[in-house]
Design brief:
The complex is a heterodimer. In chain A, 21% of the residues lie in helices and 40% in strands. Chain A is an alpha+beta fold. In chain A, strands 1, 2, 3, 4, 5, 6, 7 and 8 form an eight-stranded mixed β-sheet that branches. Chain A has a five-stranded mixed barrel with strand order 9-16-17-19-23. The longest helix of chain A has 16 residues. In chain B, α4 runs parallel beside α5. The chains are: A alpha+beta, B alpha+beta.
Chain lengths: 478, 452
């Protein structure tokens, strides 16, 4: 690390910044990807640089550089941009106070990713690919594995010095079947490149890719001949992985306070969950309890501190169905006098942190998947996200699973394909009458959440257990 | 020697002296700035400089790659060594065609580099934002959006003799306008992109957005169902992008997912529709080579409604018994997207203005923007998504009412099989991977399934 962080920080303050922070970040990402058994991409990508954020005249500026010789130039640019921001800024930015620390944090792991050879990873993915290939009728196979190693230092003019070493990894498989008339695919362990976690290689070994590969390939082929369902209102049961994105889109994004206050209006959109609803809005039924928790072990957003130096914490967002908190930054927490939720994160050194979904979880209930199915006379059980779209206020959505089964008289019967369901966010969550318990609760990691201009991709986690929803509009026809 | 020449000389020298059987080095440098605003205030303002070198080796028939954003000689050589180490662990790839050999790339007719854009700094962007906010505020509205500009250097060089590069500029405005205190409601959009930022008329764009927002009030209910639609170029651009992602590339085509699979030479869309990709056409974001250094050329995808072909990179082209069409994406792309893809899409304009389309409509829905479009079924390129930033009812030749944002679930193929008319003016639109220059469209049937 060739950047002289303290000197740069001192310079920013000396020339007028009322607050400054600098993040040095070094990322090393390994990607391994197979298409139909051939290694299409086997690569390591390294990126290192600093991002300098300043407050000058009550307004934000930011500059980033990968060039160690340009550190002071970057400080000057951050101040220039802040100066311009102040031209159209009504109220000086205030930051909610945070305990200033000098700290280190490392992702706990059992098997160090740095010690797992590409050969070992290739062998595992090839074995999983072979398992998919062994199923007759598969027309395309994809297998991928990613390692993300991030070393970062956060320093602030308030005196914080936080060093973190974060390791994340995951893998996923997709099998595609086509018969000339119909195309179906199945993913394992979930869509969106698989399942990722802040953990060592033990996470990938726990995924059981080989058995999962065979099963998802068999299901993809079976789906070609599956039935479609009739359109209409149904009881639906969503598995844990499908609920991951449901929570993400209709709760996680909706409760980002920068979005609620309009900062994303031109791009990612706004939110129906306006501040007047805090403490009194019934977001969901009493079975719906949502937390944000980046202190959870293994979550893909788990860290010791966020990118403003706020320690990891657990916050109730929805309690017994009532909206009680947002995901906040120091700035927005001060603006609405709300708790700081350790949710500010940047996509590497080159981006200014934004409020991001951390590990946003549907807390376990007291039912079980088997109980819910047994207790359903006429419904549909759905697994793994395939279709996902939501409006710019996080209200109107359409989702669909990769695979579904008709439930008749308490039992899963016919296999169903091309199922989708539509609803409006509060109506949907208020129709939830059961959530499976803690022993079925699973923490999923999604490595592809986008927001902001310029675009920022961050890694998020969602803990969920299967849940049941009544009277939801289901579509089965094309 | 200038920074650009130094960088190019360095990667060319390393390629020329490598011990690897085959070596490919790509360079992507940027010097970028953005000013972002919401609620008539600037809330984000930033600059970024970065330069990433990606190295691929093909050694002993094995492939390996490594990228770094340290651009000194030692770091690049370390990356070459890492790529060789990775390759040694890889399995042989007998079907891999090798990196690009020395081939001329066509010269662009118009320079992609504009000093006006390259020299725009935070103060200049601040002035532009001031023009936008003053204009919008003067009409009693408030704005959210971003002005951005950047200078980029892209280069590919191989030890098989290919050495190509392009220095270019790009700028963009994204703007939505609404009544004060009604963020996200009754919005009107304006979007502009181009190589030359001096062509961006901030006042005109701001007034355009206000004009739409002004009409976007008291939305009326309409029942779900099929409607005739008039789509602005912004809306058409996103649909075309999804049609391309789901249909116009080799991986979708040869797996049977694409609506084109098995139908080359057949009528698949309305005869008024012609679509092609052309990396040499400077009315889009031309770049005469792809990220493997393969020269670009015009590729007909759909001509007068007939399926013509899809795009390939070197791997998929060879696997299909042909060759690359020059559509490899960068190694640094978003992993969601597979290579290859069309990145410079065009749809052939027609003869009607947007005003003509409206005045000749008995009853139609006018859509300014689509939002959060996602795949439903690949075979017919069926997608779902929402309208956004201005959806209106057209009755008896006039825009009569604002409508709420509408959800649609629609096969793009079927929508483009019944085209009433194609707009005469095309517009450059920004897409996830590349750009699309497209006209407005008037379509006979479009399936809306609900509202927000």
């Amino acid at each position: 690390m060739d950047f002289q962080l303290q000197k740069l920080l001192d310079h920013a303050v000396a020339v007028g910044a009322s607050y400054a922070d600098i993040r040095w970040v070094h990322r090393s990402n390994d990607l391994l990807q197979l298409w139909d058994g051939d290694i299409d991409n086997i690569s390591t990508t390294e990126s290192e640089g600093i991002g300098i954020r300043v407050l000058l005249n009550g307004a934000w500026g930011f500059a980033a550089t990968n060039n160690p010789r340009h550190g002071f130039r970057a400080v000057e640019k951050s101040l220039e941009t802040a100066q311009e921001s102040a031209r159209w800024h009504n109220k000086p930015v205030e930051l909610a106070p945070v305990k200033i620390v000098k700290a280190e944090w490392r992702t706990p792991f059992e098997i160090d990713l740095r010690k797992v050879s590409f050969r070992e990873r290739i062998d595992l993915l090839c074995e999983a690919d072979e398992a998919m290939k062994s199923v007759e009728g598969i027309s395309q196979r994809k297998a991928s594995m990613g390692f993300f190693l991030t070393d970062q230092i956060f320093v602030s003019s308030e005196g914080a010095y936080i060093e973190q070493n974060i390791c994340e990894c995951g893998a996923g498989l997709t099998a595609l079947a086509a018969d000339g008339n119909e195309v179906q695919h199945r993913s394992y362990p979930s869509s969106f490149q698989g399942n990722y976690a802040s953990a060592g290689y033990e996470h990938i070994l726990s995924l059981d890719l080989v058995n999962g590969g065979k099963q998802c390939a068999e299901e993809a082929v079976a789906l070609l001949k599956a039935d479609t369902c009739e359109n209409g209102e149904k009881t639906i049961i969503l598995d844990s992985s499908l609920l991951t994105l449901q929570v993400h889109e209709s709760i996680g994004h909706a409760l980002e306070l920068d979005r609620v206050l309009g900062s994303e209006a031109s791009y990612a959109g706004t939110s129906f969950a306006t501040p007047d609803k805090i403490g009194n809005f019934r977001y969901g039924s009493s079975a719906v309890n949502i937390t944000a928790d980046n202190s959870l072990s293994g979550g893909l957003a788990s860290t010791g501190y966020d990118d403003e130096g706020v320690p990891a914490t657990r916050t109730e967002l929805i309690k017994d169905g009532i909206l009680v908190n947002y995901l906040t930054s120091r700035e927005t927490a001060a603006e609405l006098n709300m708790p700081i939720t350790s949710s500010m994160r940047a996509d590497g050194w080159s981006r200014s942190p934004l409020i991001r979904i951390s590990n946003v979880n549907l807390e376990p209930g007291d039912s079980s998947l088997d109980e819910m199915i047994a207790d359903t006379e006429d419904g549909i059980f759905m697994k793994t996200t395939k279709v996902y779209s939501i409006d710019d206020k996080r209200l109107n959505f359409e989702f669909g699973p990769e695979i579904a089964w008709k439930i008749e008289n308490g039992k899963c019967t016919k296999l169903l394909k091309n199922v989708r369901y539509r609803s409006i966010t509060p109506e949907f969550w208020n129709s939830c009458d059961a959530v499976a318990g803690e022993d079925e609760w699973k923490l999923w990691g999604v490595p592809v959440c986008g927001k902001g201009e310029p675009g920022q991709i961050v890694h998020v986690g969602h803990g969920t257990a299967a849940a049941r929803f009544r009277n939801i509009q289901v579509e089965g026809s094309r | 020697m200038k920074e650009k020449e130094k960088k190019l000389q360095l990667i060319n020298e390393i390629a020329d002296t490598t011990s690897a059987d085959q070596l490919e080095i790509t360079l992507f440098s940027k010097d970028y700035g953005l000013t972002r605003f919401a609620g008539n205030q600037i809330h984000q303002n930033m600059t970024e400089e970065d330069s990433t070198i990606s190295v691929r080796v093909f050694h002993n028939s094995r492939l390996g790659s490594c990228s770094t954003n340290r651009s000194d000689r030692v770091s690049i050589l370390e990356s070459v060594d890492k790529a060789l180490t990775i390759a040694a662990l890889n399995d042989p790839l007998p079907k891999f065609p090798g990196f690009t050999e020395s081939r001329p790339v066509p010269a662009l007719k118009v320079s992609p580099y504009y000093y006006s854009t390259a020299e725009t700094d935070a103060k200049d962007r601040g002035d532009m934002v001031s023009t936008i906010l003053s204009t919008v505020k003067g009409r009693g509205f408030e704005a959210a959006g971003a002005v951005e500009n950047g200078t980029y250097l892209k280069a590919v060089c191989t030890n098989r003799g290919q050495q190509v590069h392009q220095q270019e500029t790009a700028a963009k405005l994204n703007l939505v306008v609404n009544r004060p205190g009604q963020t996200g409601f009754g919005t009107g959009p304006a979007r502009w992109m181009g190589r030359d930022i001096s062509e961006l008329d901030c006042r005109r764009e701001a007034l355009h957005a206000v004009d739409i927002s002004e009409k976007n009030i008291e939305p009326a209910h309409i029942d779900a169902g099929e409607y005739e639609v008039i789509l602005t170029p912004e809306a058409v651009g996103l649909l075309l992008y999804y049609l391309s992602w789901m249909g116009f590339h080799s991986r979708a085509f040869h797996s049977g997912q694409s609506f084109m699979a098995g139908h080359i030479g057949e009528q698949v869309l309305d005869g008024k529709i012609s679509i092609w990709d052309d990396g040499l056409d400077c009315s889009a974001y031309a770049m005469p080579f792809d990220w493997e250094g393969v020269p670009k050329k015009k590729v007909e995808l759909v001509k007068d409604g007939m399926a013509m072909g899809v795009v390939y990179d070197s791997v998929t082209g060879t696997a299909a018994g042909g060759a690359s069409t020059g559509h490899a994406l960068s190694l640094l792309r978003d992993r969601y997207y597979s290579s290859p893809l069309p990145t410079n899409l065009f749809m052939k304009p027609g003869e009607e203005s947007l005003g003509d389309m409206i005045s000749s409509a008995k009853k139609a829905v006018l859509v300014h923007s689509f939002w959060y479009v996602r795949e439903v079924h690949w075979g017919k390129a069926t997608v779902t998504g929402m309208t956004r930033d201005g959806t209106f009812l057209v009755e008896n030749g006039k825009v009569t009412r604002a409508l709420p944002n509408l959800r649609f679930t629609q096969s793009i193929v079927e929508a483009l099989q019944n085209v009433i008319s194609v707009g005469r003016d095309s517009k450059l639109t920004d897409q996830y991977n590349g750009v699309a220059r497209v006209p407005a469209l008037k379509l006979a049937n479009f399936n809306f399934v609900g509202t927000s």
